[in-house]
UniProtKB/TrEMBL annotation:
Its EC number is 2.1.1.228. S-adenosyl-L-methionine binds at G119, I139, G140, D141, Y142, V143, L144. Belongs to the RNA methyltransferase TrmD family. It is found in: Cytoplasm. It comes from Nitrosomonas marina. This is tRNA (guanine-N(1)-)-methyltransferase.
Amino acid sequence: MPYECDVVTLFPEMFDAITQYGVTGRASRNSIFRLKIWNPRDFSDNSHRTVDDSPYGGGPGMVMMAGPLEEAIISARKRQQMLGIEKTEVIYLTPQGRRLDHCEAKRLSLSPGIILLCGRYEGIDERVIHRQVDTEVSIGDYVLSGGELAAMVVIDSVVRLIPGTLGDPESATQESFVNGLLDYPHYTRPEQYCESSVPDVLLSGNHALIQRWRLQQALGKTWLKRPDLLKLKEKNGITEEEKTLLEEFKKNCKIK
């Protein structure tokens, strides 16, 4: 059964990027996940297909109306229920939400499906959030023109974790953040490029040494670029081997 993803959005065409290109496009064509779009305008109660109005209390911009949004969400819930999914999580993309990280993407990938709600303008009527939204998610501390790009980020991060999406099943287990660290450096042909060489250990054929080097590089890159992640890993438990590798990296490191 495909992973079911329903999206409520005023701009359905934007999601062609998800279903037609890259890893998610291939997953869509291979029926690993299925995307269904719901346009709130289709649930408007007037001939102008109005979905927004001025905010109570005054202020700039417009607010998306509760009625069309809620009807779209209800329709999405019913579709997933007809497919056998009794309870689907409705996620509203907003800067006020929990920050999306690997753990959250993994959690969502283990469910049979999700419903993503994309806001526009100054936001959506608060009553929709109270009545229909289960989780609020943010992709960063900044403001976008709408929730569509954030929704696509969520879909991509989730779908790539579903078995069968990536060509090599080990790819998803060796990426950044999986073990709380950044990824190690990668190299490919040619062996020499602009007077820079591939590290000798990667040419040695000694897989134990290669794994050791990769772990050390991941630890080192995290120490250099994301010390906050390293502190979290140390808090959650770092092995003696990892401590030794990191100390070796620090001794040999030449920070520019």
